[in-house]
Amino acid sequence: QIWPVLVVxxxxxxxxxxxxxxxxxxxVVASMTYxxxxxxxxxxxxxxxxxxxxxxxxxxxxxxxxxTTSMIMCMSIIAALPYSLIIVLAIISFFKDIRQxxxxxxxxxx
Length: 110
Prior knowledge:
Layout: H1 3-32, H2 45-64, H3 68-109
Helix pairs in contact: 1-2
């Protein structure tokens, strides 16, 4: 059977992808906590380890909560609110730009 080999290969690929994503995530968040950090500087390892524990603890805590599904839904809705504001502002900016462009076109045609 080829299925056990495929399962092992998929598990290895998923673990590698998760590890690299997790490492990048902790590096970005750790570097955002510094007031000033040069491009070639890395954040301190203790800060990265702290955020790694935080990112590990949150899913574990959600797993043991009683209302996990509703909690995740509420968290995703709350997290989406700033993006909604950005989208609304982009739409307003788009229509302002169209209005200004059409006014400029009318002035150049006259």
